Amino acid sequence: MVRILGTCAALALIIILAFPFARDAYHRYEVGRRLDPADRAAFQNWSGDPASFMRSLYERCELINGRGAPACDAYK
Prior knowledge:
Number of helices: 3
Number of strands: 0
Largest sheet: none
Mean pLDDT: 88
Number of domains: 1
Structural class: mainly alpha
Oligomer: single chain
Order of helices and strands: HHH
């Protein structure tokens, strides 16, 4: 019984510790999937989080196309 409880506790601990890494990997995958090849290469070199990369692309798009431009909707 103790062995089963210990195994369950160890499994729960592994899941809790792995969750943030899995979530970050999933977000990086989702952002990378939505980008065109030029932005995808820049994203691979990005050291920050995926949300800040998309925010910087959106801000750059707004500078080029104007605030609220429909072309920038892909970066929201």
